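Sample A.
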Amino acid sequence: MKPINGARAVLSLLVALLLQGAVFAAGEDGLVTAAPESVGISSERLKRIHAFVQDLIDRDEIAGAVTLVARRGRIVHLEAHGLRYREEKLPMQPDTIFHLMSMTKPIAATALMMLWEEGRFRLDDPIAKWIPTIATKHVQVDAASGRLEPPVRPVTFRHVLTHTSGLPQLGGPFGFGNVPHGDQAPKTLWEALQRAEKAPLVSQPGEKFQYPNSLDYVALLVEKISGLTMDQFLRRRIFEPLGMRDTFYNIPPEKFSRVAAVYAPAGKGIELFWKPQPQEPTTYFPGRVGLSGTATDYFRFAQMLLNGGELNGRRLLGRMTVDLMLTNQIGDLPITVLGPGYGFGLGGAVLTNPAKSADALSIGSYSWGGAYGTLFWIDPTEELTGVLMAQIYPPARSNIRPLWSVVVSQAVIDHRSDQKPKVMGRKTPR
């Protein structure tokens, strides 16, 4: 028998323990599994996840996926489905690496909130102290005439964390992964900022939810305040403490064989949109997209938030800071990318009205997804974490988001905890 070595072997062992119904088990990498019934989950009902994903594969809506469910910090389901690269018949694996796209955003927001905890700024401070060119920007009232008006309030840290800043998008021309590409593309965020120096605000700060521009400014602020590149900050302050060994802006060459292909809808099925191939290393580290990682790595990040800022004895944030991040900050401003029933916290969506939303989750759940078919959420009331990783662009046709929350939540069989659901939030976004 060969010795068990490496992350893939550890993940395979965890999957085997789940299948065998182990009541409690910890892997070498700190991931803890449990028999579903020991944490109030039906193992029989969890099988519906496999049927749900297999149906998407059979209907040729996705090539494959990795799904993960945890309750009370213990993984009760981890499964690889289908193929990660259909043309080469390569199977999906638990440690397959996915392009996270906008699931970069909650991580970027966490980085900035770590600096907030150090007393570097207040959420309602103007960001022009750190990025002076912002102070000179006026608001574009009419694109055709070019008419501008002065901003009625400065752009603040809270605005950039909630997509209400009105700031213009940085970067371009864009290539795969919605990051700058080509000889004319900026090499750093700061170069992109210089190019956008004369671009006006697209709306009055604090008055409109405008997706997805603001989080690149979050990355700029992290770099300016910390003195590190965004890549360095995330590795030192988030990825290494949490044990996220497979999350990167630049995927190492030795790990590229684990990267999933990206597909796109075509007719009644899907076709290859991007095949796994090594990319030139980048020095452009945005906050809105750019990271790649695994389902188990993102689970570590999500579970840290659900735990109130701590995982396996490593604390990144205070509990009250996480509460603030999971609080609706934008009042009744509509979030056009999600529809009704949601507010927006710091870096992610907050479920404010389950009766109006498409998700089968509790009030106060925090979530976000990526344009290539990745998705996560945490449900503090039910102590539930869900991560789904697929690679399909755009993912809208398969309707994965609401159906994923249904097939997970229907497996919860114990009584609701004593925690009373609550909606926290600011009355006005300004």
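Sample B.
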Amino acid sequence: MELCGHLSPQNYHTIHVFSSNLSSAIASFFTQNPLHKIAQISPSPRPMPGSDPLSQQSAHDFEAYLITHARVPDLPSPLCAIIDFQMGWTKGVFFFWKFNIPVIGLFTLGVCTAAMEWNAWKVLAGDLKSGETLPVRGLPEEMSLTHSDFLRKPFGPQRGSGQSKTDPKRGGRGPPKLGDRPPWVPKIQGSIALMFNTSDYIDGPFIEHMADQMGMSAWVVVPLLSQQYWNSSAKLIRNCEITEDKQCQSNFTEDEITQWLDSKPRGSILYVDFGSKVGPMMELASARRVRWALRLGHTTGVGGLDKRMGDGGLVIYGWEPQLLILSHKSAGGFLSHCEWNSTMEAIGRGIPFLSWPIRVDQYFNAKLVVSYHKVGYRVAHDLSLLITKDDILMGVQRLIGDIEMKRRAEVLYAKFEHGFLASYVAALDAFENFTSQNQMVV
């Protein structure tokens, strides 16, 4: 929806395709815009290992929609189809070429992660030994591949029922090892260009690199964050204005959370959101002012965390207003898994990181934050081992006490904030120029 919103000022008409079971997530501002149309398709269950995603009902529904659209007299052919490569059932881009619709692949993750995964595969970086470093031609020296990049704790289901854990190249849903072919490679085949959910100020050096490596045009679309985020650069962001009240269910209201934050000194709160991983946080809670968020439905085993934190911390069960907290003057750090949207939200508010990645793209998001931008620390060197309370406490002490890192985070925030409009215009110009040069017509 955010991408459609970015295209609206240029009077592009968009058709947003989504599963019918997600209709409640469509914001009212989107449906009220005459430039936007919605195409609902049947939801499909997660495919079984080895199954053809194009056999799913959602794929059949979408093909039927395209056929119906093509039969409408005098209806212009779509300019292009912008496809999130993570939507497995759209893998067959022949769907679109069959109707003479060119495809642009959309990466909702950052371009840094894509570039690093690509190069790790191409140079067989999985063979790196301890202490070895492998520079990547065309990328900053700080982003050289190292042995520590491969020290990761296994996450998610194994790759296929009954298959050997030592055979990562066989089918299944489990994530590939770093150094294997990235899962997005076959999914973007047939695309004529790539879009990345990021900003020049975050991922600048990696964009041209990916365009060169992929042999096609690539550009940013400006971070696909809510319009309220961009309209509130110097203000608190009220999450319920974005997600609507029906989703804002927790044990505190936004006003109560704001009042608590207002009572704390500037930059004194460490924001934490790790679901039910309470164990190591107990010592952290008593050592520093911490805001700890616990998702609804995972409240067992808290062990008196609320009392232990006292007024120095706030335990929120259920939905949590992350943007409200990150945009508040009392926020001083973010203990984060480095999920991509959360990473961009924090960078855009000048918040330094203590990174604790646990899955897929989070590791290279963390490397971008820590090694390239230098606005954060890793919670530990070897992320394949159990993270202890001592690891966390040491990381918190370094983060809270590093004044220079806070200054760098503020500088990056200023670039992000003041460069948004120019980056936004440049992205739209790049899209328009590309479609014109390739003689795409509406």
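B remarks: The mean pLDDT is 76. The CA atoms of residues 2 and 227 lie 8 Å apart.
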